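Same chain as my last thread, 373 residues:
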Amino acid sequence: MPAPSSPRPGRAWFAGVRATGVVEHVDVRADPEALAAPGWWALVGTFEGRVDAWRFADVTTGAGSDAAVGRAPSWRGPAPDSWTTSLDRDAYVAAVDRVRHHVREGDVYQANLCRVLSAPLPGDDGPPDAGALAARLAAGNPAPYAGAVHVPGRGDDPGCWVVTASPELFLRVQDGALTSAPIKGTAATATGLTAKDRAENVMITDLVRNDLQRVCRPGTVRVAQLLDVEEHPGLVHLVSTVTGELADDVRTAPDVAARVLDATYPPGSVSGAPKSSALRLIDALEPVPRGPYCGLVGWWRVDDDGDVRAELAVGIRTFWWADGVLRFGTGAGITWHSDPAGEWTETELKAARLVGLASTGTTPHPHEGTVAG
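reply #2:
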């Protein structure tokens, strides 16, 4: 797709980076070699598989580059009582039991079961300001892979409105190395983490290791850190880190982005193991598409010499807006040892702080509830 003569509206923010002015849009799966073009790209992928990329004209890095987010207009969110859920408590608990049945039958070891919260935004004066919500989340729930992409749609470009406070690294590409840091295991405090959480993390770490081996040099994939405890606002996670060196034929390929995504997408931590079986189960049990939730959000940069750097987050703790409705997903990993009521509570814990921040007129406590039915 030829670049237009002048940039058109569009903004993206990630830690230490601010970009404006869209000069090109690409459907990464349909045009896998496009991301070989030098420049800085913002990427957003849906859990269902589509990955869009926007190349920006003006990119600022370093200290102060996020200042414009803080100057964004005040956020006008939905009313706290207007949120609804794609699976209420009874339906979610029943779906957990169905996953446990499939574990008992040997179909899966683990599956991530999710629900989507949604609420109409007040007013009809056009798209909300993504920077305003990004600033509110940055103040109330700082996250290592926080970011936002706001690109108006035009022609074949569907546009994008996504704001993330993701704590989870899906993929980092740097100096020919590929790194992923899956999160599995969540509790309000470290003392609440269980043997089930640790087993779940090990299962997914092994799956991610296998994914990376598909595009890395044999013998270079290793688990650099296993079962680290990370503290985030209102909760803790178990995190493991897997690294490998990209194979020479992948690192130099014009379709390196597509090669890496074909091997690893969607992220293992938000699908399950085995991944193919878990995806079929998710499709059968979840009533609505996840969209950008559990997909990817991040950036991809190609230097003039062809060197690639990228940092893509798993699209968790992520809001997206379309058709006047703000959405947010939350979920939990289900194994044989899952307690159905406890898994519902985990989805509430993950959503409470973020949904509270996005709602107008609320100052959320880290452990307050969200949508019960």
